[in-house]
Structure formats: structure tokens, C-alpha cells
Amino acid sequence: MKRIWSITVLILTGAAAVYSQTPAVVDGGVLNGASFAKGQAVAPGSLVSVFGTNLVSTQAHLSSVPVSTTLADVSVTFDGIPAPMYDTIPLAAVPNIDQINVQLPWNLPTSGTVNVVVTRTGMPPSSPVAIPVTPSAPGIFFTSGFQAIAFGNSDGALAAPVGAFPGLTTHPAKIGDPTTLVIFATGLGPVDATVRTGDVPDVLVTHTLTTPTVLVGGVAAQVGFSGLVGRDSNGVRQGFVGVYQINIVIQPGTPTGPAVPLQLQMNGITSTNQVTIAVSN
Question: Which CATH number applies to 10-132: 2.40.160, 1.10.287, 1.20.1250, 2.60.40?
Fold first, then answer.
């Protein structure tokens, strides 16, 4: 799986850099891996990004599923529970800051705080940093320009203005299209099947226990599906670890244009309105 995190330096605005010979997670440096929402709790099972100093020495990406809990001699634990490692990224755009993408283990509590610790081979572990957790905290994956990673089922085209991404088929999503628009997100909470940390479900389709509200330009869309995709009857993996799929039909009255805000609401949390899709009649 290619990395689908969008790297941003905005989330680190105001964060005090800590220079040391051991790993150090910055205060407020564990964020939803899709939205990068500052000051927001994160949900078990979701993908999160950990920011800090001296966390990694090289860039690396996971090689297989189930996902290993070590990558490039780096490991991360939450309350002592190892986290599956997606990426280690030295951030060239932010001197002395590194990024680690991991899955928050499913078996963590869903309230209060948990302690995150980063360990590198041959070094002392980082000091524990407490982070808040919650049952669900939705975030939508996006690419450059806050364009949501959202595809039409009819032809698989990205819901962006025509020609927005050279080499990719793009066009606006259509209001009322019954083939639905597919949105990729994280942080939607538990599903109606057992899911092992670092893996996808053993069944092809699961459903979130709570259906998110999906707003397109402030208008609630019809949600046809919300859940984790797992393995088919032959055991072949079809989904991605920690990545939820939501299928929607955009409703009449929804605003049109090249950059219509797309938001999710769950657990009293609304995802950022910076993420957009293109919409047409």
C-alpha cells in the first residue's frame, strides 16, 4: 500500500522543539493520521502520526500485512502495547522534526489518556507523553490542496476538477449519482467484527457500530456504507489497515463547484472543513 498520509507543517506551529540525543515526542504531537487535527483525541484502531525529535534515522514504509511493530529499528508503544508501524519519515521541511505513522492499537481504552513512548535501537526510550483517547474521532484522507481522496464507483475517477492531477482521471462527483462516491477515512471506531491490531478483518465487509454523518457543502449525504474492508473468501486482502471506507450519495440541494467542503461527524467531533471535493449536477 502506498502511503496516503498528507504531510503538513501547520500542525507543528507553536510546538517547542526539543533537541536531545534520545527520541522525544513533542507536546500535542500525536495526531489523527488523516486530518492532523490539533488538540483532538485519537481513537483506537485509527491511524495516527507521531511527531518529535530524533525519532528516526531513515525513511521506510511497511512491507507486508499484518503490519510489523518495528520498522527501521524504531518501535512505538501506547501504554506499553506495541503499535503497528506504517512509516518512518525524517521531515526535510521541518528541521529536527520527524514523523512516524502507526496504527493505534485496538485494545487501548476509549477514554482518559494513554502514554506514548518511542524507542530506537541502541538509545534510551523517549519520555512518556500522555495523549487523550476517545471512541471515535473522524478524519478524511486528502492529497495536495486539501483534495479529499474520494472516488466515484462508476469509473473510479477522483472527485476533483478535470485535469487537476496530470495522469489521473478526475471529474466532479455528481449530485444523486446512485453508484456512490467512496471516501477514505480513519478514526471511525469499532466495527461489527473482531479486527486484530495491524491487520484487516477476516471477513470482506464490516460495518461501523455508529454511522457517521457526512456533510457535503453542509448538506447531509445519504450514507450507503461505512466500515472496514477485509479479506475475500479466498483470504486475499482487499482493504487497508486502519482505513475505513464510506460510500455516499450526494443529495439534491448540495452546493456545486471545484472545492466543496467535505466533513464527517461522529462522537461530537466534526472533521476539518478544509478538505474538499468537486461537485456538479
Answer: 2.60.40
- C-alpha cell at position 8: 503538513
pLDDT 10s digits, 72-98: 999 999 999 999 999 999 987 777 899
Report the CATH architecture of 139-280.
Sandwich (2.60)
Cα(246)–Cα(150) distance, integer angstroms? 9
* pTM > 0.85: yes
